[in-house]
Amino acid sequence: MTLPTETSATPAPTGNLEITVSRAELLRELTAAQSVVERKTTIPILSNFLFEATQGAGGDRLTITATDLDQSLRTSCAAKVKKAGACTIPARKLYDYIKLLPEGEISIKLMDNHWVQIRAGRSNTKMVGMARANFPQVPEFPTSGAVKISVPSLKNMVSKTIFAISNEESRYTLNGALLVLKAESMAMVATDGHRLAHIEKLGETLEGVSGEKKTLIPRKALSELSSLLGATEAETLEFGDDEQTLFFRVGGRVLTSRKLTGQFPNYEAVLPRDNNKFVIVRCEDLMGSIQRVAQFADERSGAIKIRLEQNELKLSSSSTDAGESEDTIETPYNYDPLVVGFNSQYLIDFLKAIGNTGEVRLEFKDAQSAGQMRPEDANEDVKYRYILMPMRI
């Protein structure tokens, strides 16, 4: 079989792969890779994992690659390699099958016609694979220019912004979050045009970043990255990019994603400057009130009304179908009365993102201007804010 040449340091393995691998290790890597595999694809090879077995000075390895052409994940584990080689195996079927096997060693062997034999204990299975040569080329991690980023910091930033990314395909520059790296800080911002989540982490030392590096990361890549960051014990990850591709190396795994093209909107222009009326409430109290009142909001808009008066915050909603509801929270407030409408789900999303604990500060200017929400905590290093466009009710 003829194979596409690869531009990596190790030549692509050819020949009839034959390996033994522990079920636990194989399953761990398949679990990481299977979410990238394209489920409904018109290109059959994309439904397969690429298995590559190599023998080297660093020990024998099995490398597993999955791709949907927009993104790819490459991961590996230790294996006993009897014969180096490569094959492709239907991903979903393999993953579901390996999950059902008992603990122990699994032997995998490439047979004729791209069939792959899998033996474990008393089980003997043959799966129909496809030619290795058909598997698309996956970009290699750049040799220079990668930036080391703290895993806990990035993980926190993703969870605080990912929910505000737009789902509308037509607004594709809003289908991702903007990562802004500077020498001593990093920030992430996401918006769907109705709301905006912005988080900045100060006191980070990012070597090799001069000035400002802005990168738009697609939502799909962020959610994949979030899983990788949640599953790693590594303290830092490496982030690199080239003309078309973003690369994230987390432990032994490399996630690549096609870059989003286009200009992210000038978000700094919409950050409120003069929201001088504010109120501070406990997250739990606010969440409880919103959830109760939202039951009676108009189903399509989810709109609820916030009314601020002397030392109280009133939440209310009404719809012709469901009825009406009002909840009151007592809290210090000494400004002019104010009534403003918001989408209840957008408020709930923010309270969930901050863990629904502690206190939250709501800042307003008037009924027509954007409102701002911030956790009221003493963490000086992390500045998190959420901006919401008001609704007419």
List keywords for this structure.
393 residues, alpha+beta, 6 helices, disordered N terminus
Sum this structure up briefly.
With 393 residues, the chain is an alpha+beta fold. It has six helices and 25 strands.
Q: What are the SSEs and their pairings?
A:
Blueprint: E1 18-22, H1 23-34, E2 48-54, E3 61-67, E4 71-78, E5 80-83, E6 85-90, H2 91-100, E7 105-110, E8 115-120, E9 123-128, E10 147-150, H3 151-159, E11 176-182, E12 185-191, E13 195-202, E14 212-218, H4 219-231, E15 236-241, E16 245-250, E17 253-258, E18 277-282, H5 283-294, E19 303-309, E20 312-319, E21 323-330, E22 338-343, H6 344-353, E23 359-364, E24 371-375, E25 382-388
Antiparallel strand pairs: 1-5, 1-7, 2-3, 2-6, 3-4, 4-17, 7-8, 8-9, 10-15, 11-12, 11-14, 12-13, 13-25, 15-16, 16-17, 18-23, 19-20, 19-22, 20-21, 23-24, 24-25
Helix pairs in contact: 1-2, 3-4, 5-6
Strand content: 35-45%
Average pLDDT figure:
93
Q: Alpha-carbon distance between the termini?
A: 67 Å
Shape: elongated
Strand element count:
25
Structural class: alpha+beta
Q: What level of helicity do the residues show?
A: 10-25%
Number of H/I helices: 6
| Biggest sheet descriptor | 8 strands, antiparallel
Spatial sequence of strands, sheet with the most strands: 6-2-3-4-17-16-15-10
Low-confidence stretches: 1-11
For the CA atoms, what is the radius of gyration?
A: 26 Å
